[in-house]
Design goal:
The chain has 240 residues and is of the alpha/beta class. Helix content is 32%, strand content 27%. The protein is elongated.
Length: 240
């Protein structure tokens, strides 16, 4: 007769008890009611308020404590937040102690478009973003005949400015003319920057930055009323 290995039996029993306790604990945890919702933003500027995010989180409930953990549809919540025109990406999860947490990455505007019919932001991905009631972004203002420039070219110019610390601080406006030419405005000087057509963008901006660095050293930037960048081999300036 084969002897029973009691050590193995005890090990199996212990494993079964652990699995049972884990399952019981997990099931009990799932059926708990949520205690609170906490919302954090990756940015310090808030285009959407915590209150608005909280309303999207609790959806059809009056308050977060009316929600049971096992009734949460986290993917649905994330998709709902991602559909908000102010939000680029949201991550939602529930903790074991009954907290519903949301981490929000907002859209980052690179310009504000102002036309006769509407006003809106353009974000770094090239999509439209409505103006916010709680925060105004300091980005270049695009005016004029905006339809005369393609979205791709406009986005290329805006991203170049946004990703360059020098230009980001200097360029505050872009006016689009009927023929598609661009005129830009400087934050620190009252001259106009005649950019011309949205071509050879990098070369024109490099010419402008080189000019302004030299002009600032010699304190002559204020003497000009027009900085013409249309000719890629040189910068042509018109004095006041």
């Amino acid at each position: 007769m084969k002897k029973v290995n009691w050590n193995n039996v005890r090990l199996v029993v212990i494993l079964l008890v652990v699995v049972f306790l884990f399952s019981f604990s997990a099931k009990r945890n799932e059926t708990r009611w949520l205690q609170e919702a906490t919302i954090s933003f990756e940015e310090t500027e808030y285009f959407i308020t915590r209150d608005n995010v909280n309303k999207l989180l609790i959806q059809n409930y009056d308050k977060v404590t009316d929600i049971r953990k096992d009734k949460l549809a986290l993917n649905k919540l994330e998709n709902s937040l991602d559909q908000n025109p102010m939000i680029e990406k949201a991550e939602v999860y529930a903790t074991v102690d009954g907290k519903l947490k949301a981490v929000i990455r907002q859209k980052k505007p690179v310009a504000r478009v102002y036309s006769e019919s509407e006003s809106y932001y353009i974000d770094r991905n090239g999509t439209h973003m409505p103006l916010s009631d709680s925060y105004t972004a300091r980005v270049p203002l695009v005016t004029g005949k905006v339809d005369e420039i393609t979205k791709e070219k406009l986005q290329q110019i805006l991203l170049y400015i946004y990703n360059n610390d020098f230009l980001k601080k200097n360029i505050i406006g872009i006016d689009v003319h009927q023929n598609g030419d661009l005129t830009m405005m400087s934050r620190n000087y009252d001259y106009k920057i005649a950019f011309g057509q949205p071509i050879t963008i990098e070369k024109k901006f490099k010419n402008y930055m080189a000019f302004l660095q030299d002009a600032s050293k010699n304190n002559i930037a204020e003497e000009y009323k027009t900085i013409n960048l249309k000719f890629t081999q040189q910068v042509v300036c018109t004095k006041k």
